[in-house]
Amino acid sequence: MPTVAPLDLEGHCVAAVFLNDVPHFALADGAINRLDNGQKTIQANDGLLAAFHDAANDRLITGGEDGKVFAVKAGGEVSELASVGKKWVTSVTAGPQGAIAYASGKTAFVRFADGRIKEFAHPRSVEGLAFSPKGMRFGVARYNGATLHFPAAEGKPVELEWAGAHTGITFSPDGAFLVTTMQENALHGWKLADGKHMRMSGYPGKVKSLSWSVKGKWLASSGAPAAIVWPFASKDGPMGKAPLELGTRGNTMVTCVACHPSQDVTAIGYEDGMVIAARFADAKEVLLRRPGKGAITSMTWDKEERRVVFGSTAGDCGVIDITA
């Protein structure tokens, strides 16, 4: 039976990640807690709205209502990367070659590793950001679609249109597909080689969590009483194929998914705080954590693939050791 080391914090956990194998928990008020020979707390933003785990550089990128963007590293090192003045930073992400992107209002910014910053203006507010794993390219989720920019080169962006409000965005690990979450209960996707649309609908709730499996063969999602897992192994992605439904629990909604780093398995977190792991091949389930106080908001696997760190809306966080 997996064991859980609990950590009760005050407030909504925005991100639960490992930095240098140390569990870190970023809360909505800007406090970053870590379990490092006891509980330790540092303050990054004054009011934290957005956080992104930059696994390649082993850091957490944060942005908040104070208009600042920080990098937080293991051991409590906090460095300011950028500022937008008195405006809110509503979205942050990290990309290749040490680049980061952040958004405020209708403007997206890219900060390169050497400190150079480029601005990208949009007609409507920028809702989500993601870098492609292939080349220096990033995508913006916006009203009525997505925009692709190439920040290291001059030239026009690529506009991908689809009616409705797009709130989040992700590239497949091979860079072949782009998927957005929507204000309505749906995902929308594009095959980037030819612009073909992929409609992924039928969710009873909003999709707030997405996770790609190893090599990008599957895309797991929240927003239903099961983890909805779409097949992306073929050249046309999930078109004409039914998704897997893993971990169905009556009317209890899935709120967070986190695919295993090397196996076709996903951790599934629910609105009542329960966490399970489910295997894609046969839907076999293992209970990782019994229900808690709040909905699971964030989960991350460690590099050794034996621990899962998790956070919730109620601040009941912790670390699951699946080898115990």
UniProtKB/TrEMBL annotation:
Name the UniProt record assigns to this protein: WD40 repeat domain-containing protein
Gene3D superfamilies, sorted: YVTN repeat-like/Quinoprotein amine dehydrogenase (2.130.10.10)
UniProt entry keywords in alphabetical sequence: Repeat, WD repeat
Repeat in keyword set: yes
Family annotation (InterPro entries): Quinoprotein_ADH-like_sf, WD40/YVTN_repeat-like_dom_sf
UniProt organism field: Mesorhizobium plurifarium
